[in-house]
Design brief:
InterPro entries: Aspartic_peptidase_A1 (IPR001461), PEPTIDASE_A1 (IPR033121), Peptidase_aspartic_dom_sf (IPR021109). Residues 40-380 form the Peptidase A1 domain. With 404 residues, this protein is mainly beta. It has 2 domains: 27-180, Cathepsin D, subunit A, domain 1 (Beta Barrel); 209-392, Beta Barrel (Cathepsin D, subunit A, domain 1), CATH 2.40.70.10. 10% of the residues lie in helices and 35% in strands. The chain has 5 helices and 27 strands. Strand 6 and strand 7 (124-137) form a beta hairpin. The longest helix is centred in the first third of the chain and has 17 residues, at 3-19. Mean pLDDT is 92; it is low at 1-19.
């Protein structure tokens, strides 16, 4: 890890340690990004003595695990396995083997066994947590340097039983079983898109930061996580019924699926990009001075003039409608990122006629609550502030509809 990233991590840790202790039943876990801007990370310490490990947080994945330093990909010439990306189980006095059969369900198809050990993060230490131990990759061509595995915040409803919390490398259910958190839920603040000033974090448990909520919250029922065709048998998808782009005096819009029902979209902070219908993306990209016809297939971050990071340059926005329950607006300026070389781009793209995956570029404009016990998603416009006001969920959880 670079010195710059280490400083950013230290800043995040000290900010939230100083501001407030986590209420009983919750954990406030600081997050950070690197100069690639394509992921948010969390710091965990595994084993005895503890080994530092950096994992990508991922609300679009149910699993978590660590990488065996003896994994064949670690011998490649590009050296993808940094010291904070692997865990050596042979040096931990508290680690023990559980069983075979782990897979990380990612494109690189990480495979191995289940181990059990002590894990520390934020302000807690938890003994006897089960996790995957990746000894090989079924698709090593998808492994890029630096290698990071994920800590997943969705639930697997294909193999996890009726509550989706069965045996396996599932992070939140194990924390709930250990009474470290009081509820299987996570509340996300991804902060502003400014690497030098951002202070992202996630609250684990049945609490959320009320100071980050702007306007009215609304709650949606997750799309059926037991339906493989609709959701891939995991949580954290919601139905989107419409989208529109407002740019100067021009409006481009579309509706999707059956009226009032919409189409499933995964809220996935393991993905940097905001994937929209092609006509919506084209209207947005033209609104920030781009030429949609010049965007190449597979371009993960099309170039944008940096002037569009300034809110005064454009008042345009993309609006996402979730039936009559509520909508979220994403300002154009919030969708333009400054890259490490000083140029600017947007982590957004068009994918056919329907909305697809809503990643970080969308989620930074949202305060997001993922309730895995009630299978609900609660959204609001985000309020960017250094204040914290961590409060418990309403009794019985957020009810579907608008929450005043």
């Amino acid at each position: 890890m670079s010195v710059r990233i280490a400083i950013l991590l230290w800043t995040a840790l000290t900010t939230y340690t100083a501001s407030a202790a986590s209420p009983a039943g919750s954990i406030v876990l600081p997050l950070f990004r690197d100069s690639g801007l394509d992921a948010y990370y969390a710091e965990l310490f595994v084993g005895t003595p503890p080994q530092r490990n950096i994992l990508k947080v991922d609300s679009g994945s149910p699993m978590y695990g660590f990488i065996d330093p003896r994994n064949p990909v670690c011998n490649r010439s590009d050296k993808p396995c940094t010291a904070d990306a692997v865990f050596d189980n042979t040096t931990s006095s508290t680690c023990f083997y559980q069983r075979p059969g782990f897979t990380n369900f990612l494109a690189n198809v990480g495979q191995g066994d289940y181990l059990n050990d002590t894990i520390a993060f934020a302000d807690v230490t938890v003994e006897h947590l089960s996790f995957g131990y990746i000894s090989s990759f079924g698709q090593p061509s998808y492994v890029t340097a630096p290698l990071r595995n994920v800590v997943g915040f969705s639930l697997d409803c294909q193999f996890g039983g009726p509550s989706c919390i069965g045996q396996g490398g599932y992070f939140l259910p194990q924390l709930r079983n250990a009474s470290v958190i009081n509820h299987i839920a996570s509340s996300w603040y991804l902060s502003t898109d400014d690497l030098e000033k951002e202070n992202p974090y996630v609250i684990l448990g049945g609490f959320y930061d009320q100071s980050k909520v702007s306007g009215t919250q609304f709650t949606l029922q997750m799309v059926d996580p037991f339906n493989a065709a609709l959701t891939g048998s995991q949580t954290n998808s919601v139905n989107v019924t419409g989208m529109k782009v407002v740019s100067d005096s021009n409006t481009t819009s579309g509706t999707y699926g059956n009226p009032g029902e919409g189409v499933p979209v995964l809220l996935d902070n393991g993905v940097a990009s905001f994937y929209m219908p092609q006509n919506i993306f084209d209207a947005f990209y033209a609104g920030v001075g781009g030429d949609p016809s010049k965007v190449q297939l597979g371009d993960q971050h099309p170039v944008v003039d940096c002037s569009y990071r300034d809110a005064s340059t454009s008042s345009g926005y993309v609006e996402v409608e979730f039936s009559a329950t509520g909508s979220i607006q994403v300002p154009f300026h919030a969708m333009v990122s400054q890259l490490a070389d000083g140029t600017c781009a947007t982590f957004a793209g068009g994918r056919g006629p329907y909305p697809s995956i809503f990643g970080d570029t969308f989620l930074r404009s949202v305060y997001l609550i993922l309730d895995q016990e009630n299978f609900t998603v609660t959204l609001s416009q985000v309020q960017h502030t250094l204040e914290q006001n961590i409060v418990p969920f309403p009794e019985g959880g957020f009810k579907v509809g608008k929450n005043n």
